[in-house]
């Protein structure tokens, strides 16, 4: 993309209303604009990041064998009355009356709707195991929306639901989700620690939250520092292998790691003192096993091998897709701006022309820009007539992980500069080598 | 995807509530399920089709230089009061009161919100031309939702907005949209005819609707049959070339083609009698140029070259994304079920195992399935223990354009069958040739 033809409204001033760094940087980098309290438009740069996050979530869910679909945003109140949650949910539920005076609502989650779909079609254990998921906008009418997309009212969430014949099978689904989430967050450059959590209004004894450590996190967390050494990495995993998935769960949850809701001072004290940590964390996902909590009242049963009717065992599993855009920035920025991990960066590299209007420099920039596009790097070319300093500041603010700088002086000796945003480290190399280096970095993504 | 692990709840009976063929077939093929009146869940097969339609729309919009972003579903009423449309819009607007008693609404369209974004950031003609678009769920509280996704209440739409300094520049944006829409529909296997239309509540003198001819269309249309010979095809187009885009508009709009709203009997009578046609059509898109209708009341102005403040010239351009899934079926089906064009088919080919459980046949099926996946064909392998007839009926119903049939008899002579859904035409060939043939068909998509 050529910046002269893009829409990237970066702000010079820091907006007064933004209290945390991700909110400030998303506004300044022209990623989002508030439409009304807690509701945002995703400007082109923000939408690109959101789409990349969404794509990673889709890929990892499908790798785990989970099946994508899409439920609507507006639901009928009837199903929520059936599960008993319509009255429980309180003022956070956005309640709507349509023109025929029917009670509707903007879905904050989808246990009822998915259970209704399941019971309408599935009658036999032979259709199990089954995990369906979708990525859809949700609404929670927060009394005080704040922190930008981190605690908005309209937000994008992946929510998945497993249906299994037995508790054991459902716990395998739980473990499978844990593994797929570890992979998902790592691909986004995040370390998200699974912590034992509280069931809350969704319910359930088995539940883990995934938390990214960050000073601005809303949760207080307590953990054994040994847990931060764990990495899933690029190990192979067979999602059908029950023991293998359980092994990963045990590896990642055997160390003490809890939020303040489930914190146990006595257990915490058992950790060697030098490994005890308390910090703040941002919740970016949660998995639940809740058994027959919805299937029983809603009659989601199947016949088992003996012909008996049994209520299916379910769980639900969420990833905060729009919130992740903020969480990644909280975890990865400096005083100059955002530092995108390669997995979610809106553009793979920035191309900065130091002397716009100089025929040779323009030609060299056009050439490298074309080659980067062909190599799948998806470059952003700053072809505006601006000072070099201003171009660098924009690239630093929007946080592209790599920058190619091209000017008449370097071109004389056939060199361009390749700079890494994270470290500022710069190497000089030929334009073709710069393209090859970047192509290699992005080839695996 | 292996069917034994998929969620494809096909129905044997034709649902009584469905009045038109696309609605019946979408229900029977397990593509959608009604969540409440006019609101649908997109089951896995339906979601795949919807995603493919969405991807084509994105690709063609970006090819034309239009920039993707995303506005929220819930809007504040304030902006609509500013444009004067809050009271005009009537009962079709889903009005919502949030917990702080603020008037909100579920956006039926986005002229106000995008104009607000524009005026907040853009102050100079130098940022023009600019076209922003998004694909987002909309809500129109239809008094009698019907025909499945064709006239639902919650529906997915692509809406794009151009901002230009002059009327001439805005009309180029209009023409550019017309060209990109022709390409978009053709890629979906549709012939959509641009017809002169009525401005309606969005307003504007320049507006064309795109209509797909189909008996179940809600609009009566009148046209010169010569128009159905026109094809955009794979001609190259330079979207920056004003004359070239205008040429396409002239080519595709010079013949008489109107809906009943703008029909002119006298003009129609001028067409040679043998070319006069009246038929029914489904509206799948509309483009508008409306000048300064929103920019003036909302103060969306820029300074021009002389330093004067001028209101920008705008247009808006919509494609009914979810409705297209239904429209494509209306245009392409037979008594056995859907016939997907290759551009939007949920799976590239079906693989039918005629003797599930037979070791050699299973192995041959696994092999061809794996090779088709590797070749990017995205096959659906019916690996269930069902009779051949039932497997064929399912494949015909869900409408995959190609089917590979594998059984012990053919395998003895090293052959499988490749059948084209549209014609029933079958050829015998080696498994590798079948893979190569399908890979070639889908390579260009």
Automatic annotation (TrEMBL), chains A, B:
SUPFAM superfamilies: Class II aaRS ABD-related (SSF52954), Class II aaRS and biotin synthetases (SSF55681). It catalyses: tRNA(Pro) + L-proline + ATP = L-prolyl-tRNA(Pro) + AMP + diphosphate. Keywords: Aminoacyl-tRNA synthetase, ATP-binding, Cytoplasm, Ligase, Nucleotide-binding, Protein biosynthesis. InterPro entries: aa-tRNA-synt_IIb, aa-tRNA-synth_II, aa-tRNA-synth_II/BPL/LPL, Anticodon-bd, Anticodon-bd_dom_sf, Pro-tRNA-ligase_IIa, Pro-tRNA_synthetase, Prolyl-tRNA_ligase_IIa_type2. GO terms for cellular component: cytosol. It comes from the Bacteria. It holds the Pfam family tRNA-synt_2b. The keyword Nucleotide-binding applies. Its EC number is 6.1.1.15. Residues 33-341 form the Aminoacyl-transfer RNA synthetases class-II family profile domain. PROSITE patterns: AA_TRNA_LIGASE_II. Gene3D superfamilies: Anticodon-binding domain (3.40.50.800), Bira Bifunctional Protein, Domain 2 (3.30.930.10). GO terms for biological process: prolyl-tRNA aminoacylation. GO terms for molecular function: ATP binding; proline-tRNA ligase activity. It is found in: Cytoplasm. Homodimer. PANTHER family: MITOCHONDRIAL RIBOSOME PROTEIN L39/PROLYL-TRNA LIGASE FAMILY MEMBER, PROLINE--TRNA LIGASE. Belongs to the class-II aminoacyl-tRNA synthetase family. ProS type 2 subfamily. Catalyzes the attachment of proline to tRNA(Pro) in a two-step reaction: proline is first activated by ATP to form Pro-AMP and then transferred to the acceptor end of tRNA(Pro). This is Proline--tRNA ligase. It comes from Pikeienuella piscinae. The gene is proS.
């Amino acid at each position: 993309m050529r910046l002269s033809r893009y829409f990237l409204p970066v702000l010079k001033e820091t907006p007064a209303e933004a209290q945390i760094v991700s909110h400030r940087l998303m506004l300044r980098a022209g990623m989002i604009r508030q439409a009304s309290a807690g509701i945002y438009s995703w400007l082109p740069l923000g939408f690109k990041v959101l789409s990349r996050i969404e794509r990673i979530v889709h890929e990892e869910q499908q790798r785990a064998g989970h099946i994508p679909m899409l439920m609507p945003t507006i639901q009928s109140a009837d199903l929520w009355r059936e599960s008993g949650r319509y009255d429980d949910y309180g003022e956070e539920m956005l309640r709507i009356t349509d023109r025929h005076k029917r009670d509707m609502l903007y879905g904050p989650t989808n246990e009822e709707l998915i259970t209704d779909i399941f019971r309408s079609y599935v009658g036999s254990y032979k259709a199990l195991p089954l995990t369906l998921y979708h990525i859809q906008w949700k609404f929670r009418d927060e009394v005080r929306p704040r922190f930008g997309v981190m605690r908005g009212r309209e937000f994008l969430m992946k929510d998945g639901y497993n249906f299994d014949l037995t508790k054991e099978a459902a716990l395998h689904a739980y473990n499978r989700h844990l593994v797929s989430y570890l992979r998902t967050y790592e691909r986004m450059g995040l370390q998200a620690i699974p912590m034992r959590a509280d069931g809350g209004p969704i319910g359930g004894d088995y539940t883990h939250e995934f938390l990214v450590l960050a000073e601005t996190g809303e949760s207080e967390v307590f953990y054994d520092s040994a847990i931060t050494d764990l990495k899933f990495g690029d190990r192979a995993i067979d999602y059908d292998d029950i023991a293998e998935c359980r092994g990963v769960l045990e590896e990642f949850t055997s160390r003490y790691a809890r939020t303040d809701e489930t914190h146990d001072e006595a257990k915490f004290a058992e950790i060697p003192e030098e490994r005890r940590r308390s910090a703040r964390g941002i919740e970016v996902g949660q998995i639940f096993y809740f058994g027959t909590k919805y299937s029983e009242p809603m009659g989601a049963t199947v016949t088992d091998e003996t012909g008996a009717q049994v209520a299916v065992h379910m769980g639900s599993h969420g990833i905060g897709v729009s919130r992740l855009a903020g969480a990644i920035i909280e975890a990865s920025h400096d005083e100059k701006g955002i530092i995108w991990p390669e997995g979610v960066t809106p553009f793979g590299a920035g191309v900065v022309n130091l002397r716009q209007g100089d025929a040779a420099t323009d030609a060299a920039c056009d050439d490298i820009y074309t080659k980067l596009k062909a190599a799948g790097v998806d470059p952003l070319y700053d072809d505006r007539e601006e000072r070099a300093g201003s171009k660098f500041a924009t690239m630093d603010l929007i946080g592209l992980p790599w920058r190619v700088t091209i000017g008449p002086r370097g071109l004389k000796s056939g060199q361009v500069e390749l700079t890494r945003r994270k470290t500022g480290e710069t190497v000089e190399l030929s334009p073709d080598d710069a393209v090859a280096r970047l192509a290699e970095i992005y080839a695996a993504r």
